[in-house]
Amino acid sequence: MSRAVILMYHLVDTPRSTMERRFCTTPADFARQMDYLAESGHAVISLDALCDSMAGGTPMPEKPALVTFDDGFACVLEHAAPILQRHGFPATMFALSDRLGGVNDWMSCRGFPERPLLSVAGLRALQDAGFTIGSHTRTHPRLTDLAAADAEDEIAASRIRLQDAMGCAVDHFAYPFGAFDTTVRDIAARAGYRSACSTRSGFNRVGEDPFLLRRIDVHGSDRLWQFKQKLTFGTNDASLTYPLRYAARRVIDRFGR
What is the C-alpha separation between 11 and 152, in angstroms, rounded? Predict the structure, then answer.
C-alpha cells in the first residue's frame, strides 16, 4: 500500500544568519532535491489528490510525495517556483492572511533576519505557477496557547480573508509551530478545511485523520543523503546510524514478542 510523504520547507534562498540556516534551503540544494524526486520515480501530488486518496477515492500512485511551504516568504516565488515548474510539480503555500505583503515579525523579534512575505499579487503568481494556497492562520500564534475563541478566529477568519483575497477556495491548513491539540484540530475541521498539516514526522496512509497530516521537516543544512533518508524512512532523524537503528527495531518487533 502506498504511503505519502509530505515535505515541509520555509525559505528557499541563501541564509542570512546561522540562526536562519535551520529554516533556509539554498536554491541549489532545493534543485538537487527536486531533481532526486523526479529521478527516483516519486509521484509529486497535490494536497487535494492526497485527501481524495486518504478518503478512499482515487488510489495513491507509487511513491507519492508532496511539497509544502510555510509562512509565505517572497523568496519561494523567486527561487523555488521556477524549479518546481521545470519538473511540473504541484506545491502548497500556507500563508498568513494578516501578514500579506508584510514581514516575518514573529521571527525577527526573536533575532531572525527580517524577511519579506508575499503580497496578494505574489500569491496569485504562485498560484499561476502551480501552487495551491492554504492558510497558516492570521498572525502565526501558537494556537494551543490561545483561548478557544481566539484560536477559532485565527483559524476560521484566515480562511475567509484568504479566500476573499484570492477569489478561490482555501481548503488546507497548517498549524503554526506544529502546535495543536484536540480542540485546535476540531476547530480546523469545523472551519471548512479539507486537511491540516502538523510537524510530526511520518507517512500518511489511507484512512488516517486528514487533520493530523504528518510532514518531514527539510532542514537547510540537510545534505542530499539526509534528504534521501528522510524520504525513505519518513523521519526527521537523518543520521548515519538511523538505518541500523531502524533495522534493529524491526528485528526486535518481529522476534521479540
Answer: 27
Distance of CA 122 to the CA centre of its chain: 18
Of the candidates 193, 109, 106, the residue with the CA atom closest to the CA atom of residue 141: 106
Measured CA to CA, the distance from residue 233 to residue 243 in angstroms comes to 8
The C-alpha torsion from 56 through 61 and 64 to 69, rounded to 10°, is -70
| Tens-place pLDDT, residues 202-228 | 999 999 999 999 999 999 999 999 999
Tally of CB atoms within 10 A around 235: 18
Could you report the per-residue pLDDT of 162-188, keeping only the tens digit for each? 999 999 999 999 999 999 999 999 999
Is residue 212 within 8 Å of 185, Cβ to Cβ? yes
Domains, the chain, in order of start with CATH, read 5-255 (3.20.20.370)
Burial readout 4-14 (b: 16 or more C-beta within 10 A, e: otherwise): bbbbbbbbbbe
What is the pTM for the complete model shown? Answer: 0.94
pLDDT of 247 strictly over 60: no
